[in-house]
Amino acid sequence: MEFSKSTKNLAVILGFIALSFTLRxxxxxxxxxxxxxxxxxxxxxxxxxxxxxxxxxxxxFQMDEKGAPTQLKSLSVSVPSESLKSAxxxxxxxxYSALKGDKFKGIGFTLASATTNNNVFQCNGSxxxxxxxxxxxxxxxxxxKEKTLRCTGSKKMKMSDFQVEAPSFMFGSVKTGDEITISxxxxxxxxxx
Length: 193
Description:
Blueprint: H1 2-25, E1 26-31, E2 36-43, E3 48-52, E4 56-63, E5 69-80, H2 89-98, E6 106-117, E7 120-129, E8 132-145, E9 148-158, E10 168-169, E11 174-190
Antiparallel strand pairs: 1-4, 1-11, 2-3, 2-11, 4-5, 5-6, 6-7, 7-8, 8-9, 9-11, 10-11
């Protein structure tokens, strides 16, 4: 009888230890200062780039004993439309209009699933631009860097896939191309519980 009781107690203690290890191994992150997302494309005049320093990122990774990410459990990204800035205010204004910034908050991505190959995470999820949501897949390379986790990558797509009319400026004499590249350089810092 006494043996059975101590076996149960040992099982409960081992269960708590295993649970606490699992909870420690899964770490929540948010974007750190200096993170940015860019949208780049071409126009009839020159190439252009818009950059946001205000992307909101929340992620949860399974980490190994060395502090390297092994699994991406959750990810959400939001970029306010009006945080995207180029070198031309007129283009910015037309881009906000094309993104339907008066109706929609901005650009958002929500992870559905992810697979891992070393430090490259293939992220499958939903990308929303100008109120239109599409399923996409993109690769993110995530590596520990000093006290952060740096995630980088890019994805080519077409504005027309999201029913976004390519912006123009200078009274329509300069028109942007349909194809864009969204790139990200995000430093993630662990959220303290």
